[in-house]
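Q&A FORM
Asked by: J.P.
Topic: structure of FAD-binding oxidoreductase

PROVIDED:
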Amino acid sequence: EKVCIDGLGIDKVLLDLDSREKLSKDYYWYSPVLEKRLKDKIADSIVRPESDAEVETLLKIAYHHKVPVTVRGAGTGNYGQAIPLEGGIVLDLSKLDQILEWGENSVRVQCGVRLGALERAARERELELRIYPSTFMKATVGGYVCGGSGGIGSITWGDLWDGNVSEVVVYTMEEEPRRLVVSGEDLPAYIHNYGTTGILTELVIPLAPKTEWEQSIVFFDDFMQAMEFSHDLSHDDSIRKRLISPHEWPIPSYFRPLKKVVLPEKAAVLLETEEGSQPALARLAELHGGTVGHYIPAEKYRSGIGLSDFGWNHTTLWALKCENNITYLQAGFSLAHFREQVKLVKETFGDEVLLHFEWMRSRGTVTPSSLPVVRYTTEERLNEIIDFFNTNGIHVANPHTYSLDSGGRGILPLMKQKKQENDPLRLLNPGKID
Ligand code: FAD
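REPLIED BY: S.T.
REPLY: Here is the structure written out as tokens.
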């Protein structure tokens, strides 16, 4: 079924059940808790605008009829961020996919541009993305800024709150939607906002000069050796890096495409470092009792599967392919105490919680952030694990809630203020922010 709405052109509205089911869902099923709560949620219609003017028209109509609007980029979020809790319209912005303007060290894009396409285009101009999620081939720039946090590159450039968004164009949800051009101190109201404070149609993001990246895996007998190695590498400013991702055994055994290169029973550190860094890496590995066991030269970067396809939240995906009771947490270990914290988690939970880390920077400080793989039994047990982590100084950003108030990472007071100003009828993605 297709309909035409005045000012929106033909074929912009989808009403058929298949489209509504497919485009009302994201990767919420990573969480058995969210899967139970969200599986029946569905939009009444999907609207796919192709210009800012069409977005504006749709917002006016929705405001007039008091219909909720939930934005969708590529729908790869993990917390049901893009799922319409109260039905209404899912506004699919994936057709706003034009790269608008290259600056010397930045780019202006429409929100639906895929990060993978942007990285490719940037590298042709001797530039590259600073940070991107491991889902970059599918994920959109708008979806990343409004639903993500950090990723590959974050070891050098930090996360979304570290100056990695320069400007956004925002439409408000009012009788006459306002078009805001936002930069500076108001920006955090729109970062990780789940589309609750406004609809972003354009973004300007800073870029880095292109680096030739080689990939390698360093193996260690013991996970703590892998942690010490990756701790030292994270702090070594003489080696440029994009990915430092240590995994305890048996996580590497989940990486089926790497079956021939993974060493049994060993902890593995997945690396993207600048071309020519192998001698320094080998020295550092040896110092910590490890060896470089797999190497992909820079000319093979982006040809076939890369090591970042196994890090960040892709690790959970590979684990899920092998065991069906897998879920995960998002845990900020402490730089000063991660050794004791890792020991404590292993002593307390054994193989129920499997650790891998993504070393990153946050507000300039190197941090051991982790997405532990959890062998799930019950919601109560999951909450016990979360409580244990929090009590022991390992801050959990709970990925088993769709609420920005209880699980989000954004700056809540500012978001709430802008919510009030920009969406007085609370029609944007209702239920995601109090
Ligand atoms: P969507 O899921 O479509 O949307 C995300 C949120 O933003 C939703 O609330 C949506 O309403 C809102 N939104 C989307 N576009 C707009 C807009 N234009 N204006 C206003 N609101 C909008 N995340 C990370 O941060 N780092 C990772 O490394 C990472 N790895 C992942 C690995 C896997 C295997 C999976 C499944 C997920 C991972 N994620 C990660 C989560 C997710 O993939 C990313 O955050 C991704 O950038 C989301 O982009 P998207 O286009 O799919 O957004």
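FOLLOW-UP: Residues 52-65 form the longest helix (14 residues).
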